[in-house]
Design brief:
Mean pLDDT of chain B: 85
Radius of gyration of chain B: 23 Å
Number of domains of chain A: 1
Mean pLDDT of chain A: 83
Shape of chain B: globular
Radius of gyration of chain A: 21 Å
CATH topology of the largest domain in chain B: Cytochrome-c3 Hydrogenase, chain B
Distance between the termini of chain A: 23 Å
Largest sheet of chain A: none
Low-confidence stretches of chain B: none
CATH class of the largest domain in chain B: Mainly Alpha
Low-confidence stretches of chain A: none
Number of helices of chain A: 15
Strand order of the largest sheet of chain B: 1-2-5-4-3
Helix content of chain A: 55-70%
Number of domains of chain B: 2
Oligomer: heterodimer
Helix content of chain B: 25-40%
Chain lengths: 358, 544
């Protein structure tokens, strides 16, 4: 298994040979920042095209196929379109909060990027409460949505924002409990530690029943957390026009749009981390030859591949199911998912305490 | 018929009874409300379904209304003519809103077009025209000068108030002002530009959190005044406006007006033309229900279903295009038959459609009907009882979803429907799911009708000869057909010239939209979309 931290360590020593330590670190941070933003943009473009193609095939259509081969350049053309669109300024709104809201949403999802296990040694920060940090920053997003809805001074956006607040706060609970369940399994909150703990076998297999329950709940809660169908009530088109971002235009709207797709990636990435070993290749105990072959596939391919495969499932939900109603949505969380989750946590503790895992 | 006549003469000796295609009783306004009450509540009459109210201006003979009533129990029909009291400045008739719920809206329509004031009706705003519109357009002395009602470049004036005319105990008529919404209500505009209202329909919705308190339906954004236009057209020309009402049931609507004019002019059409007309009606019913299922599922968030249903609809439109030359606004039925003969591929194409339809319906049920989210969204949402459905005149698949067997093809068969073997789909639940399932099953029944006819299209003329200049005798006629969305009626009054004196459309979608307020009370905002979608109204049909 190639350890990509060799490359980063080489870069660090190369830089410190010529410039002082503090300048090297600053330069590295800048490089990472730029790299992260580029990755962010490229992933968003890819996801937009991916979703459009997937939903087109579900709907017996071809999807974008005019710009570039198989419509590959469509997203890029759309990006340029959204960049040059006018930012319409409205009267009677809270201008500061209105402008702030999209940045809050996008900052939340960008920060979450920092702790994802991109590959072996390709993690930006790996500290002992990494997964906790991820939960904390991803909940800043709801603040942006609430502000967007409130500051627009529009009844539709307000209803959308309130729905969103209720929904995200509720489903954060389920997500948190799923994460806690898996942290019990891993015995650490460090992202790198969780990946290492799955060297032997992915948690979805080794944790068997409680891990599968946690996975199913995590996917449901994750879909709700990203405001995607069938839980897309905050922006339910047929009810609230476009929900909290009705009044936004140009790149401000683009930020919400980007954040939605990137949150999809983050949720799938976290699911890949917790249940499918992050960047860890598929290892089956006892099959050493097989494990060795699997190690030849680069670790970042494993991670991104897993995340995209899980995103496909979430996209599949969206294009199949009708939307829930707000009261049904909250009933699902508080009356079903939460009790099951608490029970599952106890079950996981029993499994771990008595060593019943594989 | 004769016992209704006896009963009415005993109830109201001064009533003038006149025979026609439908028996018509003339009643003075002073006795009208009490008489209406006995028509509705008397066990031997029980005229519980108010089909339409036709406002009329007979110039020097005064103004008045013709009420078309039907008894759902005995399947009998009755027309009641009431002359307005007072002068042309302020004609008055007593309201019957307390007997038939739908009368509230119908009376507003008459007020809008004729200026007839309905005493005691709690809401006497205009229904379609602007608040500031001058004059009443369907009066015969209406001044059409465009400078009187110029196209406004200002925002339309809005008001939360309505005038009501209340009769006091001593018989005096007093004008009062009434509020529609209270000052503390949080009113959200849903529409006129909204993805789920299926056209430019506007609901002013007072909400409390996510719960709906009251809905005020605001119409007229696509009002084109077709009833006024008809009065200037010759009879063959009137046909070409029928497909602009409910553009998904252009064929049944054309069929209705053609039958009405043919009956009035005494024209007998060939059997081939009749079979072709029925085939087209049923094909458009399937196409219309396909679109309903698709858009309804999309309203509920299941976007993918739209494409699956549109696949079948496209196939039907291809069939229509070959024969009728159009995909949307068909002008195929004409007086005396149909415009041109069937395309040579017609039979083959229809068989291809009938082959794929059952598999498609099975697929729709698999992907959507049994889905737990869909069932939670639709079951017990927007329950309309049978009594309410009749009182609000909600016909068609909506009425049948509430257990009211109101299919005109069965209860008053026209054309060749009486010879055909099909079932009327009726469900008892009355919720959104029932309305959805009724349409799903009606597609199967329509396919059955088509299968019976398509191999037995008789030879003969597709159109008989009719005089170039068509004049109808003096008189009035009323005809109903089953459109894709319910009972569609046309009232025609002729003064013996080449154009109609009055042609009144009784659309099925107006009651469907009017009943929304009643059945969304206390439900959630998301349910408004479910309910509105399940009622499947078409706005051009409401606004005309």
């Amino acid at each position: 298994m190639q350890d990509l931290s060799v490359g980063t360590a080489w870069l660090h020593s190369f830089l410190t040979d010529y410039i002082p330590e503090w300048a090297a670190v600053t330069l590295e941070c800048l490089l990472i920042g730029v790299g992260l933003m580029l990755l962010y943009a490229v992933l968003a473009l890819f996801y937009i095209l991916f979703e459009r193609k997937v939903c087109a095939y579900f709907q017996c259509r071809l999807g974008p196929n005019r710009v570039g081969p198989w419509g590959l350049m469509q997203s890029i053309a759309d990006m340029f379109k959204i960049l040059i669109k006018e930012l319409i300024s409205l009267n009677h709104i809270d201008k500061f909060l209105f402008a702030l809201a999209p940045y809050l949403v996008i900052i939340a999802s960008m920060l979450a990027f920092a702790v994802l296990p991109w590959g072996n040694g390709l993690q930006i920060i790996d500290f002992n409460v990494g997964i906790f940090f991820l939960l904390a920053v991803s909940s800043i997003g709801v603040l942006g949505i609430l502000l967007a809805g409130w500051s627009s001074n529009n009844k539709f956006t307000l209803i959308g924002a309130l729905r969103s607040g209720a929904q995200m706060v509720s489903y954060e609970l389920s997500m948190g409990l799923c994460v806690v369940t898996m942290v019990v399994m891993a015995g650490t909150m460090s992202v790198g530690g969780i990946v290492e703990a799955q060297n032997h076998l992915w948690f979805i297999f080794s944790g068997h029943i409680p891990a599968i329950i946690a996975f199913v709940i995590f996917m449901i809660a994750g879909t709700a957390e990203t405001n995607r169908g069938p839980f897309d009530l905050p922006e339910a088109e047929s009810e609230l026009t476009a929900g909290y971002h009705t009044e936004y235009s140009g790149i401000h709207f683009g930020f919400f749009y980007l954040a939605e797709y990137l949150n999809l990636f983050i949720v799938s990435g976290v699911a890949a981390l917790l249940f499918f070993g992050g960047w860890m290749p598929l290892h089956i105990p006892g099959l050493d030859a097989f494990n060795h072959v699997m190690d030849y596939i680069p670790s970042f391919v494993w991670f991104i591949g897993k995340a995209i495969a899980l995103s496909f499932i979430i996209i599949w939900f969206k294009w199949t199911f009708p939307r829930l109603r707000i009261d049904q949505l909250l009933t699902l969380e508080w009356k079903y998912l939460l009790p099951i989750n608490l029970f599952n946590l106890v079950l996981m503790v029993i499994v771990v305490t008595f060593g019943l895992y594989l | 018929m004769s016992n209704i006549r006896e009963k009415i003469s005993t109830l109201l000796p001064e009533a003038v009874i006149e025979d026609g295609d439908i028996m018509q009783v003339t009643v003075p306004d002073a006795k009208w409300h009490d008489f209406a009450k006995s028509l509705r509540n008397d066990a031997d009459l029980s005229f519980d379904f108010l089909v339409t109210i036709v406002g009329m201006d007979w110039k020097e003979n005064g103004m008045g209304c013709v009420y078309y009533l039907t008894s759902t129990k005995f399947n009998t029909h009755l027309a009641v003519k009431v002359m307005a009291t007072g002068d042309r400045e302020r004609p008055l008739i007593h309201s019957i809103f307390d007997l038939w719920a739908i009368a509230t809206i119908y009376e507003r329509e008459v007020y809008d077009f004729f200026g007839i004031i309905f005493i005691n009706n709690p809401d006497m705003r205009r229904l379609f025209l602007n608040l500031d519109w001058k004059g009443y357009p369907l009066r015969k002395d209406y001044d059409e000068d465009p400078s009187i009602n110029p196209v406004s470049i200002e925002n339309e004036r809005q008001t939360d108030f309505t005038d009501v005319w209340i009769e006091t105990a001593d018989g005096k008529i007093e004008k009062h002002e009434r509020r529609i919404f209270q000052p503390e209500d949080f009113v959200v505009n849903i529409g006129p530009q909204h993805p789920a209202t299926h056209g430019v329909l506007r609901f002013r919705t007072a909400i409390d959190g996510e719960t709906i308190k009251k809905i005020d339906i605001y119409l007229g954004y696509i009002h084109r005044g077709v009833e006024k236009i008809y009065e200037k057209l010759t009879y063959p020309q009137t046909l070409h406006f029928m497909d602009r009402l409910d553009y998904f049931s252009a064929h049944p609507y054309h069929h209705c007006l053609c039958m009405l004019i043919e009956e009035a002019a005494g024209i007998e059409i060939s059997r081939r033309a009749q079979v072709i007309r029925v085939l087209m009606d049923e094909l458009s019913r399937i196409a219309s229900h396909c679109l309903f299922i698709g858009t309804y599922c999309m309203d509920l968030g299941a976007t993918t279903m739209l494409f699956y249903t549109l696949r079948v609809r496209e196939q039907i439109l291809d069939i229509m295009e070959k024969t009728c030359g159009a995909r949307m606004t068909f002008n195929y039925d004409c007086i005396g038959g149909v415009m041109q003969d069937l395309h040579p591929d017609f039979v083959k194409d229809v068989h291809a459609l009938l082959d794929v339809l059952p598999a498609n319906i099975k697929e729709y049920n698999k992907i959507f009907t049994g889905n737990v989210i869909a069932r939670n969204r639709m079951e017990n949402v927007g329950v309309l009882t049978r009594e309410d459905a009749i009182s609000w005149a909600v016909t068609g698949p909506n009425g049948r979803g509430s257990g009211w067997a109101c299919d005109v093809r069965k209860c008053a068969p026209y054309s060749i429907y009486s010879e055909l073997d099909f079932e009327e789909v009726v469900r008892e639940e009355g919720d959104s799911m029932a309305r959805f399932k009724v349409r799903m099953d009606e597609m199967v029944q329509s396919a059955r009708i088509i299968a019976q006819l398509v191999d037995n299209i008789p030879e003969g003329d597709y159109c008989v000869k009719v005089p170039k200049v068509l004049k109808l005798p003096v008189g009035h006629w009323f005809k109903m057909v089953e459109g894709c969305r319910g009972t569609f009626g046309i009232y025609l009054e002729s003064d013996g010239t080449t154009n109609p004196y009055r042609l009144k459309i009784a659309p099925p979608c107006l009651p469907a939209a009017a009943v929304v307020d009643h059945i969304t009370d206390g439900q959630k905002i998301a349910d408004l979309i479910t309910i509105g979608g399940s009622l499947d109204y078409i706005v051009p049909d409401i606004d005309r």
